[in-house]
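Priority: medium. Attachment 1 of 2:
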């Protein structure tokens, strides 16, 4: 089949590459000429494991190409995916300007019969809006014989595991309109997804509004599990319980399962924060209150301050002279995506309180530097108290504490002895609960995670006890780096 995918970002590029990999002729369209030039030259603009190889393989085989021209791309295509961004507006609603711009573009250039697929995450009613915009543009062109069906096919891939998620999906949700045109679209979509349904049919057919809502409800449920565990973790801290033991005890219940029960520094990324807000907004527009989801958001906003609170408990409110190592900036491992990453709140708050921060992320260097400079409104080159370390161990040199913000695999099993040697005070504040508190206690490391800690960690966080260490060093002229 000939397929067009509009938007060459995380979702569009993965969709284009995976559909080409399964034998289709795919044209990727993006309105960013630099992005298209990079893709045409065999590079990729994002970090996603395995994607560069897959794009390269399909470019060489001639099944995949990229262009900025919608009119060229649409020639004899059967299916057109819309996979452009739907960022949040100030009021929490989804900004549909990119989706509707693509709809206009399709309306201006389409011929014959096309199935237009909304893959972007969009509020209920958007498919109808897209169809309306396309028809408006078609009407301006006069008789063309062009016909369009709009279907909803939300995407459930996870950044960092996107190719596997697309190639071996748990489910494929497709919403089609009733009637003859909708049935024709259903047959086209069924044919397109045959390679992904070989073992058993994973497609869940439904009406369009239900498909649109399924995406938001799914993300809201996952976010709910995270915020729920974050609240359990705060309680565990007060009760002297260990949230990781609680998680394992809960997860073995098949009605609960293990997924998304990890306490941490809060969820971020390009989906959960904006999609939960958009769901609450949509509900409000229809006179409904999504009270659970609204609470999930509030808990998450507070959770992003947890590591900062720990630093303040350990060092007091004035962080001048305090040097902190930070491991992990991307919103989760295996991506360079910094959209709504909790690290941004943590680093910005600590910086504003006077701390010096030495940052390390295995992949998201330039994205993190750009995001932090933007948040602080100061060019990266002038942020002298934000320093970049090229290795995790280098970041620890002379730091008063280590903060773990993203659970990259390479942080899971570090050389703890080397860690202790480099840290000025061996305090590990673990926003991802990577380590065993007892093992670290045996090594003399004060450890405090989210709902798990050792006695040294509790002691270190008691009443700004470590401030004296920083002061002492200053008086002794011990070369505190500020
Ligand atoms: N990132 C994820 O993990 C994920 C997962 C599931 C669903 N989604 C949803 O998928 C959609 C896309 O997300 P993303 O993360 O891939 O976004 P992205 O920002 O990475 O990519 C969007 C791309 O669209 C291009 N674009 C914008 N307007 C265009 C236009 N008029 N014509 C052509 N190209 C245009 C941009 O240049 C960019 O390359 C969003 O609605 C998002 O909520 C994302």
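Attachment 2 of 2:
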């Amino acid at each position: 089949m000939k397929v067009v995918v509009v938007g060459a970002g995380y979702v569009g590029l993965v969709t284009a590459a995976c559909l080409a990999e399964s034998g289709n002729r795919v044209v990727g369209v993006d309105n960013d000429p630099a992005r298209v030039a990079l893709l045409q030259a065999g590079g990729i603009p994002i970090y996603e494991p395995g994607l560069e190889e897959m794009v390269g393989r399909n470019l060489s085989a001639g099944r995949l190409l990229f262009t900025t021209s919608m009119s060229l791309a649409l020639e004899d295509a059967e299916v057109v995916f819309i996979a452009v961004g739907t960022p949040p507006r100030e009021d929490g609603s989804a900004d549909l300007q990119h989706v509707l711009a693509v709809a206009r573009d399709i309306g201006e250039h389409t011929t014959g019969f096309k199935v237009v697929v909304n893959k972007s995450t969009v509020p209920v009613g958007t498919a109808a809006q897209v169809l309306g915009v396309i028809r408006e543009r078609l009407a301006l062109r006069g008789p063309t014989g062009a016909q369009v069906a709009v279907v909803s096919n939300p995407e459930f891939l996870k950044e960092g595991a996107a190719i596997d998620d697309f190639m071996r999906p748990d489910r494929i949700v497709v919403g089609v309109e009733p009637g003859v045109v909708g049935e024709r679209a259903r047959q086209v979509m069924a044919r397109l997804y045959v390679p992904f349904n070989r073992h058993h049919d994973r497609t869940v057919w439904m009406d369009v509004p239900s498909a649109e809502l399924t995406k938001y409800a799914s993300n809201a449920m996952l976010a709910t599990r995270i915020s729920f565990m974050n609240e359990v973790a705060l309680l565990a801290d007060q009760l002297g319980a260990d949230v990781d033991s609680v998680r394992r005890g809960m997860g073995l219940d098949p009605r609960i399962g293990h997924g998304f029960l990890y306490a941490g520094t809060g969820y971020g990324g390009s989906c959960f924060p904006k999609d939960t807000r958009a769901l609450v907004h949509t509900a409000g527009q229809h006179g409904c209150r999504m009270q659970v989801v609204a609470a999930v958001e509030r808990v998450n906003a507070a959770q992003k301050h947890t590591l900062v609170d720990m630093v303040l408990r350990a060092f007091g409110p004035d962080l001048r002279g305090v040097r902190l190592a930070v491991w992990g900036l991307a919103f989760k491992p295996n991506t360079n995506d910094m959209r709504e990453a909790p690290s941004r709140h943590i680093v910005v708050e600590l910086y504003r309180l006077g701390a010096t921060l030495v940052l390390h992320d295995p992949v998201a260097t330039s994205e993190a530097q750009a995001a932090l400079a933007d948040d602080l409104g100061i060019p990266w080159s002038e942020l002298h108290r934000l320093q970049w370390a090229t290795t995790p161990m280098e970041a620890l040199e002379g730091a008063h504490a280590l903060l773990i913000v993203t659970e990259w695999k390479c942080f899971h099993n570090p050389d703890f002895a080397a860690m202790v040697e480099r840290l000025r005070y061996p305090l590990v504040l673990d926003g991802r609960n990577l380590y065993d508190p007892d093992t670290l206690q045996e090594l003399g490391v004060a450890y405090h995670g989210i709902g798990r800690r050792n006695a040294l960690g509790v002691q270190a966080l008691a009443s700004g006890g470590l401030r004296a260490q920083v002061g002492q060093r200053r008086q002794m002229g011990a070369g505190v780096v500020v």
